Amino acid sequence: MSTSAASEIPSPPHVLILGGGFGGLWATRGLARADVRITLIDRTNHHLFQPLLYQVATAGLSAPDIAAPLRHILRRQRNVTVLMGEADVIDVDARRVRLRSDAGEDSFDYDYLIVATGATDAYFGHDDWEPHAPGLKTLDDALAIRRRLLSAFEAAEREDDPIARAAWLSFVVIGGGPTGVELAGTLAEIARHTLPREFRRSNPAQARIHLVEAGPRLLSAMPESLSASARRQLERLGVDVHVGLAVTAINGGGVVLGDQHPTDNAGVGRAVRIDSRCVLWAAGVAASPLGRQLDVPLDRAGRVPVQPDLSLAQHSEVFVIGDLAQLMQADGTRVPGVAPAAKQMGAYVASAIVTRLTGKTTKPFRYRDFGNLATIGRLSAVVDMGWIKLSGIIAWLFWLAAHIFFLIGFRNRIVVLLDWAWSYWSYQRNARIIVGADTPAKNDASETNDG
After folding, report:
1. In 214-317, where do the E strands start and end?
2. Beta-bridge partner residues of 326
3. Which pLDDT score is estimated for 4?
């Protein structure tokens, strides 16, 4: 075949995917057999199994146990190119995305665009709280939180003043959703079972773990019976649960809480101060700021309203999925920002693109809710699968099996299973290595070595 003849062969449509999380990865895989060119761009080089991120933060697992390089995952998929970068500008009219680059302009044209850049922490207008109460969204966050937690126990060991020592041994987790519940329960286990025999001057078992929720109950997405069960299981672990108390101030010395449901006749709420040198944020999320580049009205959380096929109303070639998408289904329910929804959205968009290429009409996206689950601690968890509701040991076993099954990669499943088995029998956490150093401006410096 001549060069001129080869040049006349039309190039396959270019699908540009921003984000290598659950939505982006499932969309990429769904297009494996499609006649398209795929460019997957993520600001990291790995896919992260975010439901177990708190285990890295609490030294139960190492970073490679819950993450895998995107290039390795997609090594057999010949129609995809993986690039490490971060989108800076999206020009939907020109169908072009520009990356943030120090080496000059780096832009990509597309025929179809899938935006799956997830969410960030939301501090409800108090961004000054972030240095004092870091959130948990990335491996960098998890490693920084792990350093902060373990360093607090080390500082208590050096402290002679009992009041100052108590502040170092006081931990506050803000947010009563699954992440907050899991963090608080795991912290209680570390303090009560893992560390006491290793310290001489301080007693980690005397640590106070506070879980703060502004709403009337924990795990508000679950039935009240499971919410109450979760609270009882946490309190058996020694966690102090505060509900109906919203955070009104956070600084380097602790937090101030205000009563959201005052009971006195004057209707005046009480203020509660907790002295703590280690505060963690699990209270709210905001959609990726990249949504503002799509030139559409956003909802209060910064999510992008999408059509039933997950595309933009004015630009049907642009799809938004995962935590960044805001979709009200025909039955009036909103698709939640959880991993199963992102996976389903990614797979759906892949099939929708293939359907469009064949000239057929796509059916609306429909989210299938398989339930919610959260682990609380050793032999403690809650599971809500609609008609099946579990708590305690059975729920814990179900949680273990589900997370092992959904982990990316055979190696990760085996390593995590062995680590959990060892932790169960020995109460030990093998990733308790403090590396890196906090920056003066912000206590969330990233690390490259997880030990």
Report:
1. 239-243, 245-251, 254-259, 271-275, 278-281, 285-287, 304-305
2. 305
3. 45
| Catalytic choice (157, 182, 189, 447) | 182
User: Do 87 and 41 contact (CB within 8 A), yes or no?
Assistant: yes
Task: Give pLDDT, residue 340.
Answer: 95
Q: What is the pLDDT of residue 378?
A: 86
Cα–Cα distance for residue pair 121/444, rounded to 1 Å:
13
Rounded to 5 degrees, what angle do the CA atoms 407, 394, 241 make? 90
Q: Looking at the chain, how many residues does it have?
A: 451
Q: Which long-range contacts (CB under 8 A, 24 or more apart) does 219-223 make?
A: 219/176, 219/177, 219/178, 219/181, 219/372, 219/374, 219/382, 220/176, 220/177, 221/177, 221/336, 221/372, 222/372, 222/374, 222/382, 222/384, 223/384, 223/389
Check: CB of residue 212 under 8 Å from CB of residue 294: no
Q: Is 86 a catalytic residue?
A: no
Total-model pTM: 0.89
Other beta carbons less than 10 A from residue 74's beta carbon: 21
CA distances from 436 to 52, 60, 147, 183, 440 (A): 22, 18, 8, 22, 13
Render 56-116 in DSSP notation, one character per residue. Answer: HHTTSS-GGGSEEEHHHHTTT-TTEEEEE--EEEEETTTTEEEE--SSS-EEEE-SEEEE-
